[in-house]
Write a structure and sequence with these properties.
Helix content: 10-25%
Number of strands: 10
Oligomer: single chain
Largest sheet: 4 strands, antiparallel
Radius of gyration: 20 Å
Order of helices and strands: HEHEEEEEEEHHHHEE
Strand order of the largest sheet: 1-6-7-5
Shape: globular
Strand content: 15-25%
DNA sequence: ATACTCCCCTGAGAGC
DNA sequence: TGCTCTCAGGGGAGTA
């Protein structure tokens, strides 16, 4: 669920809540969340380590510890809570700190994944970060996108969701970016002009920045922290607005399936060319 | 390399 | 009430 703006919001919340805390115990109730080692080893490795920083790359959270790194991908429903009273059957991992505080990983659909790496490894050269493309903010100009798009046969909506090409964009923001750039989501990426690539890149940066500023989008159950709603859902132009009039032109927002994902767009503002 | 299809999970809401 | 179906901010494996 969470995309770059939501993960960034979670990162900021985490940084306030767990920075410099020392882990004294880790309970893993659902082992498959731990992707690259056993739950036992995971707990053992984390014990007695202090959280020195919380970083982010794309949709991955990176807990920097004194002897290693903990990577966390929230996928669709992953979230972090800080109150032991909120423990329920969907709380899969609990970190206990030396000051008596806790960090709970909660994930209704159990899609989220965590990875532990020793400090010696360069995590950016290691799966799963290895294949991540640059974030829109790191891309200087549309020319760079244009060149990447030349090499694919996919439509722009699928390309925006491909983390290898650009990292951080998910289904909500992909639709919003296409709308802002006035590009039909089924347009083949290799047919986009350099000017459109420039527009698309700028739209990506603007929308993601604005969303971060607003604390992300709170749709359905998702919250950056328990009881904390984002505000960007109020700014959404097409996502979650199927069959409603377009806020710009009044035509009805359409919803179709692209690559198995629901895709909303305005058939008038985003005419195919 | 790319296109499919299916899978991992649970819950909400629609339709009957 | 209860069943069945579809859908959901993601990503990966297996197969042609």
């Amino acid at each position: 669920m969470p995309e770059l703006p939501e993960v960034e919001t979670v990162r900021q919340v985490l940084k306030r809540q767990v920075l410099n805390k020392k882990i004294i115990k880790v309970d893993v109730f659902y082992e498959k969340i731990i992707a690259n080692c056993s739950a036992n080893e995971f707990s053992l490795q984390l014990m007695n380590q202090t959280i020195l920083d919380v970083q982010r790359k794309g949709k991955f959270l990176i807990f920097v510890l004194d002897h290693g790194y903990l990577l966390s991908h929230l996928r669709m429903e992953g979230k972090y809570w800080f109150d032991l009273n909120l423990l329920d059957k969907h709380a899969h991992i609990v970190f206990y700190f030396s000051d008596g505080k806790v960090l709970i990983y909660h994930d209704t659909r159990k899609f989220g994944r965590m990875y532990y790496f020793q400090k010696e490894v360069d995590i950016h050269q290691q799966y799963p970060l290895l294949n991540l493309g640059m974030e829109p903010f790191e891309i200087q100009n549309g020319q760079i996108l244009f060149e990447k798009f030349m090499k694919t046969k996919k439509c722009i909506k699928e390309v925006l969701l491909d983390q290898k090409i650009m990292a951080g964009i998910g289904n909500i923001y992909a639709d919003e970016i296409c709308f802002k750039a006035k590009i039909h989501p089924l347009t083949l990426a290799n047919k986009l002009t350099k000017k459109q690539c420039e527009t698309l890149l700028n739209a990506s940066k603007e929308i993601l920045m604005k969303a971060i500023k607003e604390g992300g989008s709170t749709i359905k159950t998702y919250q950056s922290a328990h009881g904390v709603d984002g505000k960007f859902q109020n700014e959404l132009m097409v996502y979650n607005h199927a069959n409603e009039p377009c806020k710009i032109c009044g035509h009805s927002i359409k919803k179709i399936k692209i690559g198995g994902r629901g895709s909303s767009y305005c058939p008038y503002c985003q005419r195919k060319r």
